[in-house]
Every structure is written in structure tokens, then in C-alpha cells.
Write a structure and sequence with these properties.
There is one protein chain. 0% of the residues lie in helices and 52% in strands. The chain is elongated. The chain has one domain (12-44). Strands 1-2-3 form a three-stranded antiparallel sheet, with no helix packed on it. The two termini are 24 Å apart. The protein contains no helices and three strands.
Length: 46
């Protein structure tokens, strides 16, 4: 699934933070080229 589309190419970055523990988590955050958060999802280990 593609959440964001633009007519002109743009930049941005994906930030992934893994936090060990019980339960462990993985936070995935996608930012645009100005550093604005566009999408975030946090996954928890089973």
C-alpha cells in the first residue's frame, strides 16, 4: 500500500526505533523532507 504520492519527486526518511523489553517494540516513522511526521506505526512482539 502506498500512503503518499506526489506529482513531483520529493525526499523524506524512515526512522526505525527498536526497543527491547517484554514486550519488545518496533516504531516505524516516515517523515517528509521538512521533518514533518507523515505516518507512524508501532509494532509489539507477541
Amino acid at each position: 500500500m502506498q500512503y503518499y504520492t506526489y506529482d513531483e519527486p520529493t525526499g523524506g526518511f524512515l526512522n526505525v526505533v527498536i526497543t527491547p523489553g517484554d514486550p519488545a517494540t518496533a516504531a516505524l516513522r516516515f517523515y517528509d523532507e521538512q521533518g514533518e511526521l507523515l505516518y507512524e506505526d508501532v509494532k509489539t512482539a507477541n
